[in-house]
């Protein structure tokens, strides 16, 4: 065992040296920053972990004039880039220049405009917290504003750290009404141009550390003018190759959500958390059936999953859903007492079929949300709860508690969880008063749950302000769907990268993650209607979402992959995908944290090397052994990593030795490609021609037994 742990340590160390870390600062600057008229929000810096404004004490900004130049000198002391435990001081200047008399040609065609020169330098004016040129508060035709980031420094970092910057967003307002405000970005030919009819934010492309905009008037009406109210720019700080990706740092991603506060830790170790093992892919399932689950379905659930969320519309042949869920949970627990069961309930939508709705229907006029003087019905069918009504909140909580008090129910799953307020805060500044009555309802449920019962929500979302991280303070875990859904300015790859971070962060804090996915996350192909084709389609597209899960997987992470949740015999939903072989291969514990290089992620487990490209959705799965042994859930004894022989030295320079005689040995790379082989026993084996890296050697002994294990070539 010591030898194996030593090998894992060496392997992880080798990986650590491969990739550099990139940290980001997103700066939002308004014209009044550094002036006596400044308010705290005139300069905001997001370092990927938390958003800070001037009031944080970590930001300083001064505004000075040098002839016609306007200079913003900014310092920031809120990030530790080299991870030495001390924040590093960032300083840089933003120079703003104004010009009049530009020579320009505007074209409505894409990238067909030009600015041959800016003309004569003039004053930059700030009026009503907007940037303008030459005495007024706007940009007239032929006037230009030029922004440039200069004099960037980080005290305390070695020269190995480099930086790059770019302007990502400009906020524009029209200053004399109307429409057809046109402008050109940059200097030269084939420039990007833009036309706006109202106040707008715009993301110019191909911009680096300097940015300019020239007014081009209006092609169809009288002279039109505009002003700039805010700029957002990004500074990337690139570490040397001996820095390690910090999986708790949002700033490793190009674009992230706005994050307002530290992530809450799990403070209570509840025994109702699902059982967990690295023997094979840890899995959970959501399922519903208006009729009773068959005995085979109950057995499949008990045998293949560690957690089931008993969905709505789960009457199981009973009159009311509560009775159906209790019956299904009782049957499942009879076969697998350790399986965790969750009762589903919605935080906003009053779905039908529950016994509790008898009381709700009697109070619907007072407990529902109104719109235009009439009760709002979701999808024109279902009441929409009004959480501001105390009686409704008490009824909703009592409905959840009634089910959570059952011995066969381990907790409550709450759906349609929304952000509590614009900042994503559950509590006000005192840390105890709920920010509104919605969070009061959830917080009261969490506090009133019986001991050891779970509260899990459809909570974390990349596209929300704060990603709803604050709500995790009153939840034991999060369902994770829409993990590839982008927010403004993100690509799908950006969204997935941030979702990976959200899930890994939650798991490191002791929370549970129920990862939910389907074949649709891997392909845009239309889902087949033919049963055989649907089966093949489902098998074929499991690899991309499974690779994402394996990148985030830690204890308390569970994977669900379905085409739907309806378990009726007449339904075509594949709610139980246990027919997929990969779910039954031995996995083994991870050999380290995931490795991130841009959008490429890699990770190694005892029996698997996996990599995934978030942009192309390409994956590589290299299983060392694919033996399926559902009885013992262990890898075939002929091939494992509990080595009866020694390979030494390890890591290897040029040659290695084996402590036993062999018939043959074959070396593979981590993609499963055969690299070289030896067909006879030797005292030393020469691998000097191999490039540095991690490899797998498969050995055949004289007694025809086999052995496989890893080594590092340095």
Automatic annotation (TrEMBL):
Residues 647-706 form the Secretion system C-terminal sorting domain. InterPro entries: GHL15 (IPR029455), Secre_tail (IPR026444). The keyword Signal applies. It comes from the Bacteria. Keywords: Hydrolase, Signal. One of its GO terms (molecular function) is hydrolase activity. Residues 1-20 form the signal peptide. This is Glycoside hydrolase. It comes from Flavivirga aquimarina.
